[in-house]
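R.M. (postdoc): so does anyone remember the format we settled on? I'll just put the structure tokens first.
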């Protein structure tokens, strides 16, 4: 598993995003750099895991193996020697008892000396064997428990680092999710525009021909009247707009038929009313060569519209009258319409969820626009009445702004505004857009101020309507700004149009407080070929953690060291805490109540480490030093504070788990975990009288803490 994660981390590290366009938004930069951040996180987690596994070998397995080989193995050798010496002694004793008393005195004395010698060897072997058994039985109490405790220490340290890494990751995760949502919104907005562009580009070859080519060509059906009835004949038609010539070639040439290619000169073209014929998509033309009208049938409604447009045909207009050129400008009726819509939204719909994002019915929108822009009584519509819902009003406002002959922010300034939004300098963006706003014509700037002030008011209720400045930018970017030419490159700049509107909303107070000191915008940097390098959001650049020191400090340094509390409540020699932008939630009993807040994690008051003091105050127990996985010289003996939960101080009458006040176990309250205690077999020993080293004499606080908290069994 660890190997697979590390390979995955390497893949993420080497992965490169490719983007279309010459510039990336801030959100796209965050997304492009996210895989490298993920790779760093996975690498760090796996590094900690490998250290934990290494600690399992260094702190648990090897000490236990050494104990088995050195202590138990040595005891087995003592046992063999004891059994051998015992067998030798008892066999000699048997032979000695069978000696005859009639032997010489010198022989008996020599036999007695040999028996005494073997008895001495046997007693010495038995004492050494018993002593070794006693030593193993006593030393295993700490020599076996200490490695397990050390391994748990390293395991909880790994878990603690993982928790800290999670706390570091959460703010980054939230910011990246916001960038992903913004990018998704930009994608949705751009996709809609690209769909419209694709449709126009599919139709463009039929209406935009090279010089010398027909203006439009394709299949049409012609109504032919015969004596016995009416038939429809299929022709391939080519129309040249400048000469007004229509060439019609029949597709079904029958042998012997007189029909051939017809060259006609167009006089007029009129759409055929639907109720006057039982065929769809029909229109009538008049020519100089034929008397009367010729009825033609197109292949579809869109195809008929193209033919009539090429032939300058007369087509009734059923959609909104504001599409007429004289009503497409920013005139008084338009301002009145915008103000009424804004007033209606702010009065009865400013807290509506998804306001401006939710689309109204097209029929209702056209009905409202036709009524408001009626030439007979323009503006005579009460939007406060219950006849018009919020969706219809907001959709009508967006429809009006999008169908102006020129967008509110004008074609002339479009390129400069987009280039300003592409700048990686945030101050430059704001300054350039501020200056360009005051280059707008007076009516356009007035309309823009009216709209942006309204959008600011809507965004102030984002808790209710869920419409942030970024969401408003996605909606009104293509509405207030658009390129004059329809190209894919222009569509790819829609996300920067959204950023312009977002900046206007977020900095409305500064921009409309007055023109900048220098009304001319700073020189606009040229577009970049390569993506810019903008400092993305990151968590991998945070201060590095120092590795925890596993039980490697001496008692002389213990007075200067501080303990920190891990999530499981164990005291350990901690690495320097990470400096965070926010403090972790305080735990009961873990912090000093009177300590002022700092950027780093609060540390508890230094306390004496009983295991460390006890091991150092005893004589003759020094052991060879080893090296932990993190490169720190360590001692196999565990010298950490005992594991204790981070709880408030024990209540009077109930002693803590570490230092029992006496040898008798105390009753526990309901809810406390049961604690295994050994029943007393003898009175408690007097306090330890071991001489205090000179270094400790200089630390009265440690001496006092030792006298108060050291268990009586030390």
């Amino acid at each position: 598993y660890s190997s697979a994660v590390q390979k995955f981390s390497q893949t993420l590290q080497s992965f490169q995003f490719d983007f279309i366009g010459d510039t990336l938004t801030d959100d796209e930069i965050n997304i492009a750099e996210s895989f490298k951040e993920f790779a760093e996180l996975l690498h760090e987690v796996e590094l900690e895991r490998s250290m934990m596994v290494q600690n399992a070998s260094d702190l648990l397995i090897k000490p236990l193996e050494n104990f088995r080989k050195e202590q138990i193995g040595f005891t087995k050798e003592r046992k063999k020697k004891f059994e051998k010496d015992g067998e030798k002694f008892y066999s000699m004793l048997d032979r000695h008892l069978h000696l005859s008393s009639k032997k010489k005195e010198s022989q008996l004395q020599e036999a007695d000396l040999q028996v005494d010698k073997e008895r001495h060897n046997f007693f010495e072997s038995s004492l050494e064997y018993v002593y070794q058994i006693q030593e193993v039985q006593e030393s295993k109490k700490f020599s076996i428990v200490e490695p397990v405790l050390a391994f748990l220490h390293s395991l909880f340290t790994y878990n603690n680092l993982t928790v800290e890494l999670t706390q570091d990751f959460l703010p980054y995760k939230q910011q990246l999710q916001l960038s992903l949502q913004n990018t998704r919104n930009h994608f949705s907005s751009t996709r809609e525009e690209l769909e419209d562009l694709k449709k126009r580009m599919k139709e463009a070859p039929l209406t935009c021909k090279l010089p010398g080519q027909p203006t439009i060509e394709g299949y049409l059906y012609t109504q032919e009247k015969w004596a016995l009835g009416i038939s429809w004949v299929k022709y391939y038609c080519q129309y040249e707009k400048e000469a007004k010539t229509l060439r019609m070639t029949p597709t079904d040439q029958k042998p012997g038929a007189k029909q051939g290619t017809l060259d006609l000169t167009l006089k007029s073209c009129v759409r055929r009313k639907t109720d006057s014929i039982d065929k769809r998509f029909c229109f009538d033309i008049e020519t100089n060569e034929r008397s009367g009208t010729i009825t033609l049938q197109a292949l579809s409604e869109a195809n008929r519209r193209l033919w009539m447009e090429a032939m300058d045909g007369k087509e009734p207009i059923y959609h909104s009258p504001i599409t007429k050129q004289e009503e497409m400008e920013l005139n008084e009726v338009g301002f009145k319409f915008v103000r009424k819509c804004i007033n209606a939204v702010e009065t009865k719909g400013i807290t509506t969820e998804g306001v401006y994002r939710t689309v109204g019915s097209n029929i209702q929108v056209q009905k409202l626009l036709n009524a408001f822009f009626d030439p007979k009584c323009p503006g005579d519509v009460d939007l406060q009445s219950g006849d018009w819902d919020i969706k219809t009003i907001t959709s009508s406002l967006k429809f009006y702004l999008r169908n102006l002959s020129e967008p509110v922010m004008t074609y002339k300034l479009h390129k400069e505004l987009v280039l300003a939004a592409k700048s990686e300098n945030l101050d430059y963006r704001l300054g350039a857009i501020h200056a360009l706003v005051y280059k707008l014509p007076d009516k356009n700037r007035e309309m823009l101020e009216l709209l942006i002030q309204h959008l600011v008011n809507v965004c102030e209720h984002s808790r209710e309507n869920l419409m942030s400045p970024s969401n408003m930018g996605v909606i009104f970017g293509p509405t207030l700004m658009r390129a004059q030419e329809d190209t894919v490159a222009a569509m790819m700049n829609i996300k920067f149009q959204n950023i312009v509107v977002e900046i206007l909303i977020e900095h409305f107070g500064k921009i409309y407080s007055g023109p900048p000191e220098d009304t001319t915008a700073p020189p606009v940097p040229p577009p970049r070929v390569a993506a810019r390098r903008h400092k993305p959001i990151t968590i991998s650049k945070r201060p590095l953690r120092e590795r925890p020191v596993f039980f490697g400090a001496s008692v002389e340094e213990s007075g200067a060291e501080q303990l920190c509390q891990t999530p499981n409540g164990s005291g350990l020699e901690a690495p320097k805490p990470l400096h965070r932008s926010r403090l972790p939630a305080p735990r009961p009993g873990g912090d000093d109540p009177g300590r002022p807040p700092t950027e780093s994690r609060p540390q508890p008051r230094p306390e004496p480490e009983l295991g460390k003091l006890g091991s150092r105050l005893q004589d003759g127990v020094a052991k060879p030093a080893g090296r932990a996985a993190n490169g720190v010289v360590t001692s196999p003996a565990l010298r950490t504070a005992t594991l204790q939960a981070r709880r408030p101080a024990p209540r009077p009458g109930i002693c803590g788990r570490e230092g029992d006040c006496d040898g008798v176990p105390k009753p526990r309250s309901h809810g406390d975990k049961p604690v295994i205690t050994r029943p007393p077999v003898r009175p408690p020993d007097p306090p330890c009288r071991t001489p205090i080293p000179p270094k400790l004499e200089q630390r009265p606080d440690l001496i006092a803490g030792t006298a108060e908290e050291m268990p009586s069994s030390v």
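R.M.: ...and that's the designed sequence above, right after the tokens. Also worth knowing: The mean pLDDT is 74. The CA atoms of residues 663 and 680 lie 6 Å apart.
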